[in-house]
Amino acid sequence: MSIVINTNTSASLASYNLSSTNVNLQRSLNRLSSGSRINSSFDDAGGTAVSMKLSASIRRTEATLANVNNSIAFLQTQDGVLKNADKVLNRMSELAMLATDVTKSTNDLALYNTELTQLKDQLELMLSEKFNGISLFQSGTTAGFDTGTNAANLTVVTSHDGDQSFLITRADLNYISGQVGTDATSGMQINTNANATTAVATIQTQIQNLATLRANNGAEQSRLSFAADMLSINKINLESANSRIIDVDVAAESSQLARFNILQQAGTAMLAQANMSTQSILRLIC
After folding, report:
1. Predicted TM-score (pTM) of this structure
2. How do the domains of the chain map onto residue ranges?
3. DSSP secondary structure of 94-143
4. Positive or negative: CA dihedral 144, 148, 149, 152
5. What dotted CATH number matches 60-245?
6. Is the dihedral of CA 175, 181, 184, 185 positive or negative?
7. pLDDT tens digits along 268-279
8. What is the CB-side half-sphere exposure of residue 40 using CA atoms within 13 A?
């Protein structure tokens, strides 16, 4: 190999290797300090694209889970009102049965009927209950009792991509309220023994209808609870998949950091040696 002055190939090669080592060392430091294997698209172009999609899916899943939980809260609020309506109907049933007693005077029946009227008014007030401004119950009086098939349903999306959805029911408390006499057409009274006997049968039927509404409400809550569980599991799995792409393996990266530190020190020493090698030419000249 020729001995030259203008070109020091050994020093250039040592400088190149040292520069590459410094880049890798800096990248390793960035990964360990941030905890992320990917700190820029340069680190892993394909992984960055996949991670972006997974991250978006995770955020949508979190939002969907929040929506489902809000729907469960809607149904829980609705059931709370229905539970109170059940107490009202039970008291109405009790009053109607008491009014069938032939030993009761007209004044006694009038007192029973007064309380019944107040209970009917209270039942009617329940129809206006809302959850965050959304009515819990159907508006208007229906021609027949609606168990939920044709009710004014609300659509709840139960998947992050919007492909799955579920209908929750705004219960038909209007029909029950109308049948026990909160509208002008029914006018259920217990001011006579005969009217009281009719009222007992009517209220019993509406208690059964109310039981149907509560059972439907409970079934919808159960289904949404399972949907919420599935969303929670999906979120965990998506986070795990995204972690395998973007999170740094601290143990492995620490080993790489130690390796690059040694290479940097060795490279610096060898570059110094390469720069000194040309000084032997001076001995030939002298």
Report:
1. 0.81
2. 9-35+248-285, 60-245
3. HHHHHHT-TT--HHHHHHHHHHHHHHHHHHHHHTT-EETTEESB--S--S
4. positive
5. 1.20.1330.10
6. positive
7. 888 888 777 767
8. 4
